Amino acid sequence: MPLDGTVWDTRIVKNKDKKANRRRRPTAVNGTVPPKRRHNRDVRPREYLTPKEVERLIDAAQDRDRRYGQRDATMILIAFRHGLRVAELCSLTWDQIEFSPGRIHVRRVKQGLPSVHELTGKEMRALRTLKRKEGASRYVFMTERGAPMSPAGFRKMLARLGEAAAFPFRVHPHMLRHGCGYKLANDGRDTRALQSYLGHKNIMHTVRYTELASDRFKNFWED
User: H helices within the chain, ranges in order?
Assistant: First the structure.
């Protein structure tokens, strides 16, 4: 209470303090302003990985010094071959895998279209090896604490593998999905089939891959 005996409403004082704090704009000097997010084009030359670069990541994951090399290499392989988003990859369960016919039931996020893909022999061998190690777990990719691998955990792991493989740019999980799209487009896959394979509702999201197909401008110049 002030010396003159007047009574102040504490709510008014608090509101004045809040308004004063709002007027104080944070500055980079006191460290309260985070650095501006850099554009992707300034961080890396492209948003996809080539098949050879994916193999480099898998080789780095299978290094003898890595404790969970089999799991990490299998995650990269499955994400790339089936164009999985990181959330789709981490939520993959064993009931989505059919070993006998060699199929994987893909459940898409972001209201994507579900589909059934074939599994290659390389994928089957990797998954069988992983299943023997994981035992009775429900999820395919588990951490050492017995919990499913989180999207954040996979992002960090992939970034570390990119550094170990001496990539000149930072690697992120969605580059595997884009790499799948560009690889299949370069192989001449039908755009509608590619749309279904990646689970796109809008075909415009698929066209981006065919735009960079290497044979798109084939024989433009003929001598």
Answer: 10-23, 40-43, 51-61, 69-82, 86-90, 121-134, 151-164, 174-186, 191-198, 204-211
85 is an active site residue: yes
* 135, 148 contact by CB (below 8 A): no
Reported as a single tens digit per residue, the pLDDT across 55-64 is 999 999 998 6
Query: Annotated catalytic, 183?
Result: no
Q: Quick check: is 174 catalytic?
A: yes
| Torsion angle defined by CA atoms of residues 79, 85, 87 and 90, in that order, rounded to the nearest 10 degrees | 0
115-118/97-98 β-pairing: unpaired
Q: Find out if CATH 3.10.450.50 is the number for domain 51-211.
A: no
Q: Which residue matches tokens 């309260």? A: 32
Q: Which residues contact 174 (CB under 8 A, 6 or more apart)?
A: 47, 85, 86
- Of the candidates 56, 81, 85, 172, the residue annotated as catalytic is 85
Is position 172 annotated as part of the catalytic site? Answer: no
* DSSP helix/strand/coil, 173: coil
Helices (H), 83-220: 86-90, 121-134, 151-164, 174-186, 191-198, 204-211
Mean pLDDT (whole number) for 66-76:
91
Q: Residue 140: which of 158, 120, 154, 121 has the closest Cα?
A: 154
Phi-psi domain of 135 (left: phi exceeds 0; alpha: psi -120 through 50; beta: other): left
pTM: 0.78
The answer to whether residue 82 is catalytic is: no
Which candidate in 110, 122, 192, 216 is catalytic?
110
